[in-house]
Every structure is written in C-alpha cells, then in structure tokens.
Amino acid sequence: MDTLYNRLDYEQLEQAANMLKAIAHPIRMSIVDLLKDDRQLTVTEIFEELDIEQAVASHHLRILKDRGVLNSKREGKNTYYFLKHNRVSQIIHCIEKCSC
Fold first, then answer.
1. Domain of 34: which CATH number?
2. Is residue 35 within 8 Å of residue 41, measured between CB atoms?
3. How wide is the angle at C-alpha 77 spanned by C-alphas 40 and 56, nearest 5°?
4. Of 40, 4, 22, which Cα lies nearest the Cα of 92?
5. Residue 37 and residue 58: Cα distance in Å, rounded?
6. Kindly report the CA angle at 93 between 81 and 22, in degrees rounded to 5?
7. Is the alpha carbon torsion for 67, 32, 38, 49 positive or negative?
8. Distance CA 87, CA 55 (A)
9. Number of domains present in the structure of the chain
10. Range of 26's domain?
11. Three-state secondary structure of the chain
12. What pTM was estimated for this model as a whole?
C-alpha cells in the first residue's frame, strides 16, 4: 500500500503538519481565505475586513508567516501579505465543502 508517509519524506510531512496547525484557527482560516486568488493585503486591510483589532490580526499574521503559510513584502510604509503557496487556499475550499 502506497501511503503518504511512503511518498513524502519526514521533513515534508512535518512542514505540511505545521502549516495545517497554523491554519487551524478561525481567524487564520479567514486570513487565508482573504488572500486567495493571488491577493496581497496590508494588515490594515485585513483587520478592517475581518472586523478585528490590529494587534489580533498582526498576531495571527506572524503565526502564519512563521509557519511558512504566508510571505510578505514591504512597499514604502506598507507591508503586503500574500499566500506563499496558492494551493493552501484549496484547504479552505475543502473545509467549506465539508462543513455543509
């Protein structure tokens, strides 16, 4: 039987597990959903869109970035956040399908 464990090395599996753990929070799922389709948003745009405090948004963005889910780039005074791998948004799509 060809299992995921046989197809990927331990490091790849550990990285995938860490990314899934990072996404496994309602606010972080919402952030990933906002950033799908190659969107790039600032922390201000994210916290306003989600109607949460700026500190809360920054906290969750840091977790997602540290775990390899997001990247960021600085342009002038703004830092734009975006998905490191657009396929991550498919996880949110799957969750939406499963929760009906």
1. 1.10.10.10
2. yes
3. 60
4. 22
5. 21
6. 50
7. negative
8. 27
9. 1
10. 4-98
11. CCCHHHHCCHHHHHHHHHHHHHHCCHHHHHHHHHCCCCCCEEHHHHHHHHCCCHHHHHHHHHHHHHCCCEEEEEECCEEEEEECCHHHHHHHHHHHHHCC
12. 0.83
* Burial grade of 65 (CB within 10 A; 0-12, 13-18, 19 or more): middle
Total length of the chain: 100
Tens-level pLDDT at each residue, the chain (100 residues)? 566 666 778 887 888 888 889 999 999 999 999 999 999 999 999 999 999 999 999 999 999 999 999 999 999 999 999 999 877 777 777 777 776 5
Tell me the two tokens of residue 46: 């994210």
